[in-house]
TrEMBL record:
Pfam families: Acetyltransf_1. The keyword Transferase applies. It comes from the Archaea. This is Putative acetyl transferase.
Length: 148
């Protein structure tokens, strides 16, 4: 499959619409889609209101949207260095190298911006965890949580 990776800010509506659908499947506490949609949009607006964000998209040779990566430049509160936090990386078709190309471009951008590392959160049950490990990512911390 032929595709290319480019700046994604002009595709923000498409990115958000696609991510909203994908992310709904990851909910731990299922809620009706209308309620989820309202919460999702509020969260996105809040996240975008602070920090330096960057989006990249993968497009087919015909300009068709194939996937995206969203990162935010921030500071690590443990190592006290500039980092790139990946909020999201999603592709419409796995196994075509699209996710790898998006991740590579995000890492290049982070390095250009002076980040010392790239950080993201992946649930232990998500098969993508093994994919990230193959890309050189390591497990450094554990998020603990308790339902209340």
């Amino acid at each position: 499959m032929e595709f290319y990776v480019t700046d994604g800010e002009d595709y923000l509506d498409e990115i958000i619409a696609f991510d909203k659908l994908v992310s709904y499947n990851f909910l731990k506490f299922p809620i009706p889609f209308d309620e989820y949609s309202e919460r999702y949009e509020k969260l996105i607006r809040e996240l975008l209101s602070r920090g330096e964000h960057k989006f990249f998209v993968a497009l087919g040779k015909n300009g068709k949207f194939l996937g995206h990566v969203w990162l935010c430049m921030t500071l690590d509160t443990v190592d006290y260095v500039k980092i790139a936090y990946i909020y999201d990386i999603e592709v419409k078709q796995k196994g075509e190298g699209i996710g790898s190309a998006l991740l590579k471009r995000a890492e290049e951008f982070a390095k250009e911006k002076g980040a010392k590392k790239v950080v993201l959160r992946v649930d232990l049950s998500n098969p993508a965890l093994e994919w990230y490990k193959r890309k050189g990512y390591t497990e450094r911390a554990v998020i603990v949580e308790k339902e209340i």
